[in-house]
Amino acid sequence: MLEPGGLSMKTSKNTILITGGTSGIGFELAKQFLGLGNTVLITGRDLGRLDAAHAKLPGVHTFQSDVSAPASIAALFEKVTREFPDLNVLVNNAGIMRQINLQEPASQSEDVCREIETNLNGPIRMVQQFLPHLKKKENAAIMNVSSGLAFVPFPISPVYCATKAGLHSFTLSLRVQLKNTRVKVFELAPPATQTDLLGSFRAEDMKGTVIMNVAKMVQCAIEGFEKDRLEIRPGQSNSLKLMNRIAPQFILNQLSKPVDRMLAEPSKS
């Protein structure tokens, strides 16, 4: 059995694939990993956004792919491993977050599970697809990007939070199952971070939340990666996990306040 610690992860000279790398946390991870001397590959669904990301970061390699589509993942694997056989780090970052009023099924019935396909099924399928390749590498890692909301939900976004709780649980199990391999399994659980993901939320919804600068958050992530901190909880994510242990109902009540505003709005059904 390999020791869980072993050699610390190196932060340079890796070949890193980041899903959802055209903006937000994924883009910043690409930027900082590229600056450390890694080969960085990013994916995205929109070709225009991939081109824009490449214009800002000419050193990255871009691949159009959709993590919610199994056939797209299979095609990505064939292309990436053919062109970059040294790939040794997979970062499952792609994700979407929506406000959903579960009492209005008519407006959500067709796509209420869209977050599940992208945020949970996507990483699981990516791991299944790329794991045989990663197991052959000396210095391999998988980093699943969950959320501080994996530990306590933000009820105005119920499906998003459920997917992140699921991804947290999956990552724990994956780490145990891979304990006899060379593949290290990291979880990055960001707090509320200054990205487009928060664009649809009102200021009153985020009251009391300290929104972390994305560059600083990613610096913490890479530092944790280098130090083999397998569960990386920057900023308020650490507090969320702690509060959910010592005062779960209190912290849930605090995060539930935006639902009152949602329920007071005119029904769309």
Characteristic key phrases:
269 residues; alpha/beta; 7 strands; 45% helix
Write the layout of secondary structure elements.
Blueprint: E1 15-18, H1 24-35, E2 39-44, H2 47-56, E3 61-64, H3 70-83, E4 89-92, H4 105-108, H5 114-134, E5 140-145, H6 158-177, E6 183-188, H7 214-226, E7 231-232, H8 236-246, H9 248-264
Parallel strand pairs: 1-2, 1-4, 2-3, 4-5, 5-6, 6-7
Helix pairs in contact: 1-7, 3-5, 5-6, 8-9
Estimated helix fraction: 40-55%
Assembly state (oligomeric): single chain
Enumerate the strands of the largest sheet in spatial order, edge to edge or round the barrel.
3-2-1-4-5-6-7
List the helices and strands in order. Answer: EHEHEHEHHEHEHEHH
What fraction of the residues are assigned to beta strands by DSSP? 5-15%
Output the structural class: alpha/beta
- Could you give a short account of the major beta sheet? 7 strands, parallel
The rough form would be described as globular
Distance between the termini: 57 Å
Q: Specify the number of helices.
A: 9
Q: What's the gyration radius in Å?
A: 18 Å
Which spans of ≥5 residues are poorly predicted at pLDDT below 50?
A: 1-5
The overall pLDDT, averaged over residues, is 90
- Number of DSSP E strands: 7
Report on the structure:
α1 (24-35) packs across α7 (214-226) and α5 packs parallel to α6. The chain is 45% helix and 12% strand. The protein has helices spanning 24-35, 47-56, 70-83, 105-108, 114-134, 158-177, 214-226, 236-246, 248-264, and strands at residues 15-18, 39-44, 61-64, 89-92, 140-145, 183-188, 231-232. The chain is built from nine helices and seven strands. Strands 3-2-1-4-5-6-7 form a seven-stranded parallel β-sheet, with helices on both faces. With 269 residues, the protein is an alpha/beta fold. α6 links the parallel β5 and β6. Mean pLDDT is 90; it is low at 1-5.
